[in-house]
Specification:
The protein is mainly α. It contains 17 helices and no strands.
């Protein structure tokens, strides 16, 4: 029982990180209007954490390689609490962006350590289930965190949403400190180890798949609220409900994807990418109605819910002898692409329309399917 409390604590940590990272998606227009910036400029709240996380993942992990991992997880959670408090009190948009820098450092460090801890927290035969539980925090952030934050933002203002996240993060910090066992480093992660992994063909392939599918998702999903407001003509209540539907589907996708990728990794990644491509390409066509948007968001949620576990599994299988180093590469590539996706999507939405950014996401996700099929033709497992 104690071992699973540790898994729950790490899951809670990733939940508050994911929720804090993507909370601006549901509050994008209200934050932007509050500071007088465009939707694309407001999208920097998504862009900055990703870039900082990509840098922090290798730098912080290597710099703290000899520090107990429990201590580091607690330190990152304290930094996240401070970041949320700063965002809630920021008098100008510049300080909001400073808080997002702090969020980026937290993401890079906590994810790199926490994502690979399952086999240290539970017996080996239960590690697969623990991975599913830990990664369920990603869709849970969408199904609970973002809709709840969006609703609170509508009722009490967007600052209240960040303040509430700050309080919740302090609670998670306390949980981590209470239930995590000492986690001394088992292998020192060095930059040379990371460089050696990058020379492996399987690792580079995992990077390619992760880059394309995350670019597709966040290039489009960062701007799903403007799409629902302008194309679906949904008001605040229905937007929150649609985000809730998406997140609920993501929970299903996480567990289904984790089960499938354990047996057939290529099929899992390919199916997720194909479903994501179909949903985003059809949104400009069928998303004009609330019912059409809801159905497609269910498909999108199932698809993306499977992606983090699928991507992490590819990286770990490519470097089974260096799980923390594999997690560093997973985190860095994932977060850098989140940032790039939000940046590219912001450029598209400011110059064209929310429908165009959905089409961009669909075409990019289709490239993942092509890459997976090409891998199959070459006879790779």
């Amino acid at each position: 029982m104690v071992e699973w409390l540790s898994v729950v604590a790490v899951t809670a940590g990733i939940f508050v990180i994911v929720t804090t990272e993507i909370l601006p998606i549901g509050l994008l227009t209200s934050i932007g209007s509050g500071f007088g910036v465009s939707d694309g400029m407001a999208g920097l709240m998504m862009t900055m954490p990703g870039f900082l996380a990509a840098v922090a993942a290798p730098v912080v992990t290597v710099a703290t390689a000899r520090v107990d991992r429990r201590v580091m997880l607690c330190a990152f959670m304290a930094l996240l609490a401070l970041a949320n408090g700063l965002a809630a009190a920021a008098p100008g948009y510049g300080l909001v962006l400073v808080s997002r820098v702090m969020v980026g450092v937290t993401i890079g460090g906590f994810w790199s350590i926490g994502a690979g801890l399952a086999d240290r927290l539970v017996p080996a035969e239960k590690a697969g289930r623990a991975v599913s539980v830990i990664f369920s925090a990603v869709p849970l952030g969408s199904v609970l965190g973002v809709p709840a934050g969006t609703l609170l933002g509508e009722v009490a203002g967007w600052r209240a949403a960040f303040a509430a996240m700050g309080v919740l993060t302090v609670g998670v910090l306390g949980l981590l400190a209470l239930v995590l066992p000492p986690l001394p480093p088992t292998a020192t992660t060095r930059l040379g180890v990371l460089g050696g992994l990058l020379r492996r063909a399987d690792v580079r392939y995992a990077l390619l798949l992760t880059f394309l599918v995350v670019l597709a998702h966040f290039g489009a999903y960062t701007y799903v609220t403007p799409f629902l407001e302008e194309v679906t003509h949904a008001s605040a209540g229905p937007v929150t409900a649609l985000l809730l539907v998406y997140g609920a589907a993501g929970i299903l996708g996480n567990f289904a994807g984790s089960a499938l990728v354990a047996r057939r990794p290529r099929a899992g990644f390919g199916a997720a990418a194909a479903l994501l491509a179909g949903a985003t390409l059809l949104l400009p066509v069928l998303g004009g109605s609330t019912a059409g948007a809801a159905v497609l968001l269910v498909g999108w949620g199932v698809a993306y819910g499977a992606v983090p576990a699928c991507s992490q599994t590819w990286f770990v299988r490519a470097a089974p002898e260096a799980p923390e180093a594999a997690s560093v590469l997973f985190t860095a590539s994932f977060q850098a692409t989140i940032s790039l996706g939000a940046l590219v999507g912001g450029g598209i939405v400011d110059r064209t329309s929310p429908s165009a950014v959905m089409a961009f996401g669909g075409v990019t996700a289709a490239l993942v399917v092509v890459a997976v099929l090409a891998h199959a033709v070459r006879g790779k497992p």
